[in-house]
Design goal:
The chain contains 13 helices and no strands. The chain is mainly α and 294 residues long. The protein has a single domain, classed as MetI-like (MetI-like fold, Orthogonal Bundle), CATH 1.10.3720. The longest helix is centred in the last third of the chain and has 37 residues. The radius of gyration is 24 Å and the shape is elongated.
């Protein structure tokens, strides 16, 4: 009996010292798998110069459309460039676009949505502008912006983030309208608490849960959006490898070398799936009904 009590105490101590997120990840295979795949994609992107045996921009016409081999793991494209190297370096661009769009759209959405939620005068103007932006299909707005601005990775981020901002604004505004009527907000205002302290202490913490989930889905959709734009010729410049323009360049030779589209497409699909899995897992983690079971 004494040994059993000691074992129970040791087990409780281990559980108490283990981070809650890690504990939940171990119990939730969806979140654990998503985190593992995203970490793998980020690791490959960071280590691309050391993993790839060829420069992604080196052209060798004599080696064009070669099948996968020990020299060219994924084969070569129509210009003799190594598809494996271009896929690894393309991960840098696609991941950067996804994370940057999520950060930019959520940041701007929180700023604009908070103002709209607390100011009735600004709300009428801001929400009409947001409604007008949402009336324009995102792909058309992004293509129009890309035709007016010089193509670069930064302009792609701007073009993709703009259609996402109204959705975040509407989410934040609806939550702020609910939060500002809560008794603790009214009590803070009655005590003379400054507005920025109310935002930092009471409003922003209550917005984190849905915003984290929303940011994960925006990140995943932004990577697909970048592939759309590149496939249409309105994305990143051709000299900058991304999963989208690699597939766009390979569509003319897909019958001769299917791997030109297959491998970057697989990387894109698995990364988008992993980010969505993280979003689902974090949503479960932040759901109080599920959190009680931890």
């Amino acid at each position: 009996m004494h040994t059993t009590v000691e074992q129970l105490e040791a087990r409780l101590a281990r559980n108490a010292s283990r981070p809650k997120l890690l504990q939940f990840a171990l119990r939730n295979p969806t979140l654990a798998t998503g985190l593992l795949l995203v970490a793998l994609a980020v690791g490959l992107a960071i280590l691309a110069p050391w993993i790839a045996s060829h420069d992604p921009t080196d052209m060798n016409v004599a080696q064009r459309l070669k099948p996968p081999s020990a020299v060219y793991l994924f084969g070569t494209d129509a210009l003799g460039r190594d598809i494996f190297a271009r896929t690894l370096f393309g991960a840098r661009v696609s991941l950067f676009v996804g994370f940057a769009v999520a950060l930019a759209s959520v940041s701007m959405g929180v700023l604009i949505g908070t103002v709209a939620g607390f100011s009735r005068v600004a709300d009428a103007v801001i929400m009409r502008i947001m409604d007008g932006m949402m009336a324009i299909p995102g792909i058309l707005l992004a293509v129009a912006l890309m035709t007016l601005i010089q193509a670069s990775v930064q302009t792609v981020v701007i073009a993709i983030a703009l259609p996402e901002i109204p959705r975040v604004v509407r989410l934040v505004r609806s939550m702020v309208l609910t939060i500002r009527e809560q008794p603790y907000i009214q009590a803070a205002e009655a005590m003379g608490t400054r507005f920025h302290l109310i935002l930092l202490r009471h409003v922003i913490p209550n917005l984190l849960t849905p915003l984290i989930v929303q940011a994960s889905f925006i990140c995943a959709s932004a990577m697909i959006f970048e592939a759309y734009l590149s496939f249409l010729g309105a994305g990143t410049p051709p000299e900058v490898p991304s999963w989208g323009n690699i597939m766009a360049e390979g569509r003319s030779v897909v019958q001769l070398a299917f791997g030109v589209i297959l491998y970057p497409g697989l990387f894109l699909g698995m990364t988008v799936l992993a980010v969505n899995m993280i979003g689902d897992g974090v949503r479960d983690l932040l759901d109080p009904r599920i959190a009680r079971k931890l």
